[in-house]
Amino acid sequence: MYWRPLPSCISARILEVLPVCCGYHPITHRSGVQFAVTGRARRLLQIRLGRHAFGDQIMVLIFHLTYKDAWESARPVGEYAAPSLSEEGFIHCSKDIPQLLKVAARLYPGDTGLLVLDVDLEKLTSPLKNEPSRSGEIYPHIYGTLNADAVIRERALKVDADGGHYLEE
């Protein structure tokens, strides 16, 4: 079995959607919650919560879409502030890649030079809130700057012949 403390940024409501019959067993331990995950349940947890396994470690990730130039100029400084931070008070993110691709299609149709930043929530120093959009879909918002060391991977968002976006794995 794989045991790991559950980060405080994951709400209990999200955990309730995971099927118990697949081997997911939440256990209250001291002030936090821990989970045991095996086999199929581990993969379900990764899919449902935007978790990606690197070796034996599971990280909780969110995703931010930005232009390559904006990120490359912010990285040496150590923190990134999207234009939405000054305009709306937070940085827009996505909980998973399908949600990010919908955002790209809606806001950046056919645009090139876009990067997907994989943000490790355990390294994020600014507050994070999961909030509903006008359509009711939940999106993560970073209320502050994005510290560069929380970005564990950068990937170019590709554009196909029809102007749609996709990621190469």
Structure explained in plain terms:
By secondary structure, the chain is α+β, with helices and mostly antiparallel strands. The protein folds into two domains: 2-49, no CATH class; 61-166, ADP-ribosylation fold (Alpha-Beta Barrel), CATH 3.20.170.20. The protein has five helices and 13 strands. A five-stranded antiparallel β-sheet has the order 4-5-8-12-13. Strand 12 (151-159) and strand 13 form a beta hairpin. The radius of gyration is 17 Å and the shape is globular. The two termini are 28 Å apart. Mean pLDDT is 76; it is low at 1-6, 8-39 and 47-51.
List keywords for this structure.
single chain; 169 residues; alpha+beta; ADP-ribosylation fold; 2 domains; five-stranded antiparallel β-sheet; 5 helices; disordered N terminus
> SS-based structural class?
alpha+beta
Oligomer: single chain
Rough outline: globular
Strand numbers in spatial order across the main sheet: 4-5-8-12-13
Strand content: 35-45%
The low-confidence runs, each spanning 5 or more residues with pLDDT under 50, are: 1-6, 8-39, 47-51
State the helical fraction: 10-25%
Q: Radius of gyration, Cα only, in angstroms?
A: 17 Å
Cα-to-Cα separation, first versus last residue: 28 Å
SSE pattern? EHEEHEEHEHEHEEEEEE
Number of helix segments?
A: 5
Integer average pLDDT: 76
**Number of self-contained structural domains:** 2
Largest sheet: 5 strands, antiparallel
Q: Could you name the CATH homologous superfamily of the largest domain?
A: Protein of unknown function DUF952
Q: From the 3D structure, determine the CATH topology of the largest domain.
A: ADP-ribosylation fold
Task: Report the CATH architecture of the largest domain.
Answer: Alpha-Beta Barrel
Report the CATH C-level class of the largest domain: Alpha Beta
